[in-house]
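2024-03-11 09:14:02 DEBUG pipeline.ingest accepted 1 chain
2024-03-11 09:14:02 DEBUG pipeline.ingest length=273
2024-03-11 09:14:03 DEBUG pipeline.predict start
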Amino acid sequence: MFVVIIQCLLYLVAEMLPLDGYAHQRLISYYYGAEKLEQEFMIVIYISLALGLCIYYSKDLLRMFTDSFRGFYSVLSGRRSFRVTSTNFKMFNIFVTMSVMTIIVFPLLNLGELDFGVDRVAVIFLVTALILRLSTSFTLVKVDGRYLDIKEILVLSLVQIIGLIPGFSRTAMLIGVGSFMGTEKKYLVKLVLISFIPLLVLKLFFMGVPASSVFWIVLERWYLLLFFTGVVMLLIKLLYYIVFSNRFYKFYLYLAGIGIWTLLDVYFSKRGL
């Protein structure tokens, strides 16, 4: 049980930071022979992530939804245009657009049937590292770092869809591309994490576990749920600290290093896939 809890914690850390939980679970299995996390623990992890994000951003979510109703009313009544509405209303539009596109594409990917080998995971790490590195060298300057036009929203939605592919770090991809577009850091991190909530709900839904079974798993593992939820909230604070200290982009060194090491190990050590 202790080993399983450590695996769950590592998954949470990798999922919240620009590392990817699936990829690191795959690498741990490859290097150390650890068993894949059972479905009930993945359910606890997803619920903990969603619950931690909802609690941390509870005030922001409430303001976002209340301001959205006011914004729609102002736009429909002709008092304001979409460009001059509140920031929360704009974030709500982005949130809805990204969520709708993800809902449409998610079932088409058949993610539950994908199980990449570690060599493909290593290549994906190298691609993610390249995106992070480029985002530090090429950054657009915007007058309003919290304004995203429709093209930029669609680009972020596409990046989120790419981040659904096992091995790609959704956090790294979105923050890297968002920074390249000149989006304000605090606004970008909030957007990335809030838009993660509907994705977690989708993952739970497509696991195909009956709601009654999920309920009993929560009752049985409530102590883990509370503990992991607290860990998620701490990881959110850590992510903000890393992004604002400009250390976020140095994760490309880790991703590139582990990617190259794994490829060398696979093709020269012949450990197997």
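2024-03-11 09:14:41 DEBUG pipeline.report The mean pLDDT is 81.
2024-03-11 09:14:41 DEBUG pipeline.predict end
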